[in-house]
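[Protein data]
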Amino acid sequence: MIELGKIQNLKVIRKTEIGVYLNAQDPRGEDDILLPKKQVPSDIQVGDEIEVFVYKDSEDRMISTVRTPKVILDGLAVLNVVEITKIGAFLDWGLEKDLFLPFKQQVGEVEKGSSYLVSVYIDKSDRLCATMKVYEWLSSESPYKENNMAEGTIYRINEDYGAFVAVDNKYHGLIPNKELFGTYKVGDTVEVRIKKLRPDGKLELSLRKQAFFQMEDDAQKIISKLELNGGALLLSDKSSPERIKADLDMSKAAFKRAIGKLLKEGTIKITDEGIHITIKIG
């Protein structure tokens, strides 16, 4: 059986001037499909088997190629947008005919030149298409443990929950809003820490290191901000979490840990007017 969207071994049925025609060992009434002449190995003979990928050409005819696409049916891959049209976007997946991404399968605003995590499915017209709605293709069986570091791709952002991340582009992950510091968009690659393994196998993530490592980075961020502001910040441990996040892009708990470290080192002092630097760094 010839399977659209998959890599498979097919048998050479006949040779022609435009290439060779292939079919499965058990054709079951299926039409032979073409492997274009420029891709045919010079020594291939009728009866030989060859590994090919099966897709459809620009006229929606089944065709084969010896090229390996960047993603196959039900797979996942980060692909680049090469064109945006009135009917949708087209992605580079390593074949002559670009992969179609319909508007209905897009998440957020898709931009030419940007890359996004997608899967491949067969639509109602029996065509291979891409989708950015990849949730159902992700696995909950990751090898990670708490506090492991990993990399992933943001595939969806929800204002109520946070940023959904495909860890290693294959595992379910979420950066909850309380851990989401900075500005991110769909398609961004992020380095994350595995904060928690949920009972269902999905990963709760953080963009920040463990507290005792992150504290040093946060302290340096505060010092840099102080130096940019003439040595003073109108912040203190009584400032609201919203104000701290707006000014420093960190949580109040992280802020208090960092200024505690700087106070202990004598690098800053706190007055009624805020934080003041006492030692110039660098």
User: Anything to note?
Assistant: The chain has three helices and 18 strands. The two ends are 69 Å apart (CA to CA).
